[in-house]
């Protein structure tokens, strides 16, 4: 069950998603709290698992990772052990930055980041295609990244909070 978030919690989350390195006193000022209550709220959000971790986001191009590939993977059979085996194997590869089980004609969608076409081909041949049960891989190469964000759209939660409040105008 999701944790109850009020508008201050949501504001804190929005600020931290933009810059997790913001000092607590600055965050507190931006959200209209003093430092101690702000710190307690952040701790509560961390303990509840709303804030999983704080990380540095790297620019892939700046570190030489110029190719992003979305690979759809189809397995030959769907026994529980085949799915688990694939999931366990794919967790070993740092090139796979995201992995989802999906509905439709394929079983998994992978986001793979690498230095170029040749390294992707090698990675595909030596790793993904060697996982037992993989029958098909369809690769889609990113040409232009139009939008990329790690921020979740939490602003809608403030609207839900407002809808829960009793209306003061006598309307029912």
Question: How would you characterize the overall build of this protein?
Answer:
With 172 residues, the protein is of the alpha+beta class. Helix content is 37%, strand content 17%. The chain has helices at 7-18, 24-31, 35-47, 80-90, 117-126, 155-164, and strands at 67-75, 96-101, 108-114, 134-141. A four-stranded antiparallel β-sheet has the order 2-3-1-4. A hairpin with a 6-residue loop joins strand 2 (96-101) and strand 3 (108-114). Helix 1 runs antiparallel to helix 6 (155-164) and helix 2 packs across helix 3 (35-47). The radius of gyration is 22 Å and the shape is elongated. The model has no long low-confidence stretch (mean pLDDT 92).
Descriptors:
four-stranded antiparallel beta sheet; single chain; 6 helices; alpha+beta; 172 residues
What would you say about this model in short?
With 172 residues, this protein is of the alpha+beta class. The chain is built from 6 helices and 4 strands; from the N terminus they run H-H-H-E-H-E-E-H-E-H. A hairpin with a 6-residue loop joins strand 2 and strand 3.
């Amino acid at each position: 069950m999701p944790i109850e978030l009020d508008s201050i919690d949501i504001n804190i989350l929005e600020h931290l998603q933009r810059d997790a390195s913001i000092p607590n006193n600055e965050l507190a000022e931006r959200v209209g709290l003093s430092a101690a209550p702000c710190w307690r709220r952040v701790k509560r959000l961390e303990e509840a698992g709303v804030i999983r971790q704080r990380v540095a986001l790297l620019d892939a191009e700046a570190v030489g990772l110029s190719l992003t590939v979305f690979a759809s993977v189809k397995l030959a059979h769907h026994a529980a052990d085949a799915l688990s085996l694939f999931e366990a194997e794919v967790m070993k590869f740092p090139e796979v930055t995201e992995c989802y089980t999906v509905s439709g004609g394929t079983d998994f969608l992978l986001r793979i980041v690498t230095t170029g076409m040749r390294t992707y081909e090698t990675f595909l041949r030596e790793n993904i295609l060697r996982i037992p049960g993989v029958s098909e891989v369809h690769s889609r190469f990113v040409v232009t990244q139009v939008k990329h964000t790690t921020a979740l759209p939490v602003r809608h939660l403030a609207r839900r909070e407002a809808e829960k409040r009793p209306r003061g105008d006598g309307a029912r």
